[in-house]
Give the backbone structure.
Amino acid sequence: GTCEKTQFYWEPLTQSLPVARTLPGAVFSTVPRGTPSFDYRYVYMIGGFEDVAHTKPLARMDVFNIDTGNYLSPDGYPMQVARGAPMVALVPHGPTEGQVLIAGGSKSETQHLNTAEFVYVTVVDRSVKPPTTAIQLAAVENELPDGTRALGSAVTLNTGHVLVVGGVGTG
């Protein structure tokens, strides 16, 4: 079949970033509302570089709440490691449901990382709209199996596992 252009409507949501950055990782939490763990919609902006020369990676994650149109914290959330060009994926189901995996990335144009960390989100108070949440970041104990990697892709599989592919590095 064919689609009529008038059937689609797109209105951009414009909001400036709290910190200027290049090559961040980003993911939208697409877990449906009403599941036991989630009833909000967030966009996670993770790491990146402070400069266009890619020499100053950020150890910061910003979380934008689609429902309120605001960032959850004006100061962002500190990451375990500064990461430019990290690979990120939301795990929508399984034992790590709702966690965001942050893997690899770069310390500079030539130094890449083989570590990862998880973002944990817990609902603190569902009686208010939107619900109050707590966000924590924690290091992952194992490393990327094929060495360091940046500028690749992280894809969530239907098993709840995350497949990390492509990119540049030493693996």
In short: The CA atoms of residues 14 and 69 lie 9 Å apart.
